[in-house]
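Form 7-S
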Amino acid sequence: MIDSMPAADVANAERFERLGLAATLQAAARTRDEFADWLRQFFELDPIRLSDLVLAINEALANSAEFAYGATDGVGTMDLLAWHDPGESSITVLVADHGEWRMADTAPATRSRGRGIPLMRALSDRTAIETSTHGTQVKLAWENVGRRSGR
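Output:
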């Protein structure tokens, strides 16, 4: 789990992080857009691959914002940490919250809900989800992501 701390605004070719974000859909959307800008600035990605990365992290952030703190009265926090490994030519993204995992059977199934996790799995090369009493951590990874020349 990423320990929450005051919001960090770190973005360079190796690292992008937003820590201690309010777990709201507005913060998720803003962070998604900032992450997309980071990808465009530093990495060689075709439009489809870029869209895959952005949509997958949007799903992870939206899940934290919508579901992690449903059992509490206040707004919790969520963290996003992304890093590029030049040796592996990969990007790994970690989205974490400190809320409670909601089991699939605790809400009625509808045709319009419940597609976020399968979508994250389909859009990333590797997906891992860890849940505990201290929160949820979603780890997404993509291979063959090169840096832009001169960056």
